[in-house]
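Postdoc handover notes: sequence design on the structure in folder B. Input tokens:
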């Protein structure tokens, strides 16, 4: 299973009615998602023992567990940020920020990106917004 601890913030540029969605995801080396054994409980066996507390129970989407982090209970500074680790690091957990643009709840409506150039995270981001 993939575990995706994240924080989410939406801001709006009202002049152009563009919504900027900011997702901060805990990654491994900034380019890999966290994977764990399917038999473990994401909240009690993995996240909480590592000092990550959730706002609400994780949402299972396909093989992913979307875990919205409670930023008041979790000390985000206990983990590295992506710009604090070496570029070739493949083991360090770090927060990486992604931005998407769109309408309030639709990420595909502004600045469409060809499918072959997309990171493939759009469906996950969409699910995070609607959770």
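Designed sequence:
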């Amino acid at each position: 299973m993939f575990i995706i601890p994240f924080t989410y913030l939406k801001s709006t540029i009202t002049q152009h009615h563009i919504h900027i969605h900011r997702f901060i995801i805990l990654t491994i080396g900034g380019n890999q998602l966290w994977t764990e054994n399917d038999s473990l409980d994401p909240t009690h066996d993995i996240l909480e023992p590592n000092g990550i507390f959730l706002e609400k129970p994780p949402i299972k989407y396909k093989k992913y567990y979307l875990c919205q982090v409670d930023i008041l209970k979790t000390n985000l500074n206990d983990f590295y940020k992506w710009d604090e680790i070496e570029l070739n690091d493949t083991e360090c957990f770090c927060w990486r920020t992604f931005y998407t643009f769109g309408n309030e709840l639709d990420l595909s409506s502004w600045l469409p990106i060809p499918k072959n150039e997309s990171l493939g995270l759009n469906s996950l981001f969409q699910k995070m917004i609607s959770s």
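Context for whoever picks this up: The mean pLDDT is 82. Don't rerun without checking with the PI first.
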